[in-house]
Each structure stands twice: as C-alpha cells, then as structure tokens.
Write a structure and sequence with these properties.
The chain is α/β, with parallel strands linked by helices. Helices cover 42% and strands 14% of the residues. The protein contains 17 helices and 14 strands. The strands form three sheets. It has a six-stranded parallel beta sheet, sandwiched between helices. Helix 9 (200-231) packs across helix 11 (264-277) and helix 12 (283-306) runs parallel beside helix 13 (335-344). The longest helix is centred in the middle third of the chain and has 32 residues, at 200-231. The radius of gyration is 24 Å and the shape is elongated.
Length: 438
C-alpha cells in the first residue's frame, strides 16, 4: 500500500520506517526542509536504537522516501497519517491541536480517490470528528474516512513495540477504512496480534486511559517508597510482592524520581482538562499529576538531606539527565527540576549522559559537562544517579573511590543493592530502602 506520513518527529519517523519495513511504500512529509535533507543523507534526528539501520535500509530499496512536497504525495496515498506534535497548550494544559487541524486543512484539497486519513498523533476525544468536519468543509466531494490509530511506542524500544505490539487499536465505523487498516498491519497477523476495532472516540480515549493508568502505577509505587523509608520496609520487595498478583502486574512498579518524557506528563494533563470540559472530573488522574510534579522537587531535597542538610560548596557528579535510558529525550525529565534546585542550594554540578547532553545544554544552565561517567565522578563529594543507563549499572567502585573524595552515593533509580555499595566504603541512599553505611 501507499502511505503518506505527515510529520517526521518521533512517532512519524518510527511509524513510517516500520510501515516501509512491512513492505509498504511510505513517503514521510515535513515542512522543515533541513530535516528532510538530513534524513535523505541518512542522518537520524533522534536517538532511538536501530532506527538508523531501519531507515537507511528501506531508503536503499526504495520503500521509504522523504519530501517537503505534500501536493505530490497525498494524491497517490491509500492512507494519510497525521503524526504531528500535540504539545500541552501554554496556559491551560489542554493538548495543542493546531498542528493536527492545519494538517487536515492542507490534506483535504489534495485527496483523490478513496483515502483513509488516520490520526496517529495523541489527541483528545472528539478530535477525529473535528478533522472530518474540516476536510468535508474544505473538500465536500472528497471520498475519505477518518480513523484513529493511536501509537503505543516506548522510547528506547519503539521499533520492537511497533513490530511486536501487545495490540493494535483502530477507531472507525467505516468498513472500507477497517479493510485498509487491516491491510496496513497484515504482517502482524502472523503473530496473532490482537486488533481492537472500535469507534473513533473510544480509540482516542484508550490512548489517554492507558498512559494515565501507567502513570498512576508509577506515582503509586513512589508513594509506597516514601512509606517504606519511614518504616524500614523495602520497596523493591513491596513491588515484587504486589506485582506477582496477576491483577496488578509487575511492570511500571519501579520507584524513582517521577515520570517524564513526551507522553505521560502532557497526556495525563490533557486527560484532566478533557474530563473537566465534559463535566466528568477525574480526581485520581489529577492527584497523579500533582504528585509527580511535587516528587521531582522533593528528590532534590532528598539529596540535600542525605548530605546532612547542606550541599553548599559541594561538588555533585550527576550520571544521566534524560528522563529514561536509550533516548536523548529531555522533555519533563526529573533532572530539569532536580539539578537547578541543587545548584540554587550552592552545589556545583558536573554531569554526563550518553545521549542527552546536547539537548540538556540548552535547557540547564551552569552545568559542567563531562566526557564520560568517571570524568564526571572525578573530584566529586556526592555521586547522584538520575538515569538508569546500562553503563552506569556496572561502575568499578574501586575506581570510583580513587576518583571521588566524598563517600556519599544517592541512587534515585535503585540500580544497586545497598550492601554492595556500602562495603566499598560509601554511604548509600536510594528510593524506598534504608540507607546503608560502610
């Protein structure tokens, strides 16, 4: 099939590359000429493991192309995906749908023959109805249907998530559109991947409900971690003990400094605003939003408390600044709250991240950026682990001890067991577990 992917951001680029790897002819369209030129040279604008190989391989065989020319792309397409950004709107937290609606207006006069217009962007309930209204207003004679097809990609494992998903969700009542969507995802039928076909409104809500539920699990276990620290319980065992219950499940029960990234923060907030607009306010999700925002700030004070209540004049080595490993995404990363508070408290920060430093330099002032983990640790009074990159999971503690005059380690991702760090001569603080001292 012939696919037009409008937008070459994270979702559009990954989805376009994977559809082309399924055997479809995919053209990714973006208004940013410099981005398109870079992609045509094989340069990938985001850090996602394996994406460079996937993009370049499908470009070489002619299944994947990039262009700024919408007019020569849309008329030939069987399906046109809208995969533009829907950031939180400044001032009120609603999803900014201006890019989605602008894409719909530009697509409308270019439609020829039967076409399925698919919202791949994360959008509130009712957005598909407005997209359909816009297209019918601009092109009354167009032969099309609008479908919802939310993405469930995790940064760092997006290709695997697209090719081996738990489910594919499609929102449309039109049988012709359902047939097109089945054909697009036909390679997944060999794996017996469940396809949930429902109406557009339900499909749109499934995306928000899924992200809100996962965010709730994260905030819940973080609150349990706080109780553990006050009572001597161990949050790792608490998470294991409840996660083995099949009704709960073990995923997203890892205590830490709070969630971030491109999805959970904006999607939970957008869901809260949508619920308020329709007169069905959601107290649980509202509480999750508030709890996560306050947690990030409290984690900075946790570091200060571990240092005896004062970090003025202290040198803090920070390992990891992205919101999670295997991505360069800094959006709503806990580091954006934690590092400035530590700096304002008088600490000097030397940090290292394997992929996120270029973006972080634009977002965090006054940080000394290191060349590697041990370069960051050299001369430090405090070692702070903020992101659980694999290369931070196997530090040579004898080497750390020689490079680091201080003996305080604060691990906000629980990637070490307390005794293994303490026996190396360090005082070790983590999340939801008792501190360990040499």
């Amino acid at each position: 099939m012939r696919v037009a992917m409008i937008g070459t951001g994270y979702v559009g680029l990954v989805s376009g590359a994977c559809f082309s790897d399924f055997g479809h002819e995919v053209t990714c369209v973006d208004k940013d000429a410099s981005k398109i030129e870079a992609l045509e040279r094989g340069e990938i604008p985001i850090y996602e493991p394996g994406l460079d190989v996937l993009v370049n391989g499908n470009m070489q065989v002619g299944r994947l192309t990039f262009t700024t020319d919408l007019a020569n792309t849309v008329p030939e397409a069987d399906a046109v995906f809208i995969a533009v950004g829907t950031p939180s709107r400044r001032g009120d937290g609603h999803a900014d749908l201006s890019y989605v609606y602008a894409a719909a207006r530009e697509i409308a006069p270019l439609l020829t023959g039967y076409t399925v217009v698919v919202t791949k962007s994360t959008v509130p309930v009712g957005t598909g109805d407005e997209v359909e209204r816009i297209i019918r207003e601009v092109a009354p004679d167009a032969d099309f249907d609008v479908a919802s097809n939310p993405e469930f990609l995790r940064e760092g494992s997006a290709i695997e998530d697209f090719k081996r998903p738990d489910r594919v969700v499609v929102g449309t009542d039109a049988e012709r559109a359902q047939d097109v969507m089945r054909e697009l995802y036909r390679p997944l039928f060999l794996r017996e991947t469940p396809m949930v076909i429902t109406n557009r409104q339900t499909s749109e809500l499934i995306k928000y409900a899924g992200n809100a539920f996962l965010a709730t699990k994260i905030s819940f276990i973080n609150e349990m971690a706080d109780i553990c620290e006050k009572t001597g319980a161990n949050v790792i065992d608490v998470a294991k003990g409840i996660g083995l219950d099949g009704r709960i499940g073990k995923l997203f029960l890892h205590a830490g400094p709070g969630y971030g990234g491109s999805c959970f923060p904006k999607d939970t907030l957008a869901l809260v605003k949508t619920a308020e607009d329709v007169g069905a306010p959601t107290g649980i999700v509202s509480a999750v939003v508030e709890a996560n925002a306050s947690r990030k700030k409290r984690m900075a004070h946790k570091v200060i408390e571990a240092a005896g209540g004062n970090v003025s004049g202290k040198k803090i080595a920070v390992l990891g600044v992205t919101f999670k490993p295997n991505t360069d995404d800094m959006r709503d990363s806990p580091s954006l709250d934690i590092i400035p508070i530590l700096k304002d408290s008088g600490a000097s920060i030397r940090a290292f991240d394997p992929a996120g430093m270029d973006e972080a330099k634009e977002l965090i002032d006054g940080v000394d950026w290191a060349e590697n983990a041990y370069d960051a640790i050299n001369g430090a009074d405090i070692l702070l682990i903020l992101t659980e990159w694999n290369e931070f999971r196997a530090l040579q503690w004898d080497k750390v001890a020689k490079a680091m005059p201080g003996r305080l380690v604060v691990d906000l991702r629980n990637i070490y067991t307390p005794h293994e760090v303490a026996r190396q001569g360090f005082t070790y603080h983590s999340i939801g577990r008792a501190p360990a001292t040499a």
